[in-house]
Amino acid sequence: MLESTNRKDLEIKKLSASDLDQFIELIRVFEDVFEMKNFQIPNSNYLQTLLERDDFFVFVSVLNNHVIGGLTSYTLRQYYSEKPLVYIYDLAVLTPYQRQGIGKSLIQSINAYCKDWGAEEVFVQADLVDDYALDFYRSTGATGESVVHFYYPLG
Q1: In this predicted model, what pLDDT tens digit does every residue of 12-21 receive, in sequence order?
Q2: CB of 12 within 8 A of CB of 60?
Q3: Residue 113: C-alpha distances to residues 48, 89, 120, 122 (Å)
Q4: Using CA atoms, how far apart are residues 81 and 79, in angstroms rounded to an integer?
């Protein structure tokens, strides 16, 4: 599934309900990258329930059996179309591994999965003041809207 990075030892995978430990590792990546002070991780039972949902997707980048990045997303069922939308909620890669194509591989992986799954588009939002995020999403082929809402046409 890996497409844009040359690291042969890196795996991009979609987590299943049996991957709670890797989900927790990803949450710790978010905690580090987003500099979340005094963060308290939710109860493992709650996280397990979330992982079991069919409207919540988690993709991770694994290097040497350690999660170094990933993304979480939610499915939004529409009333304008029978095809759902998928919203990327968080995406992060540990600082030492940034700018190596890992984030782009995560975007490519979720887009490919959602296209095969039948989604209409994948979208993500970024703060106007976050130039790094804005540049990153533009570099992955996203189209920006005036509300800084990025979407990925899958058709």
Answers
A1: 999 999 999 9
A2: yes
A3: 22, 16, 12, 10
A4: 5
Residues of the chain with pLDDT under 70: 1-7, 146-149
Give the pLDDT score at 153: 82
What residues contact 104, with CB distance under 8 A and at least 6 apart? 3, 4, 5, 139, 140
Length of the chain: 155
Q: Is the whole-model pTM more than 0.70? A: yes
**Structure-block tokens of residue 67:** 């999660």
Q: Are 63 and 98 in contact (CB under 8 A)?
A: no
Buried b (16+ CB within 10 A) or exposed e, 85-99: bbbbebbbbbeebbe
Residue 124 bridge partners (DSSP): 88, 150
Region at 131 (left for phi over 0; alpha for psi -120 to 50; beta for the rest) = alpha
Q: In the beta sheet, which residues pair with residue 112? A: none
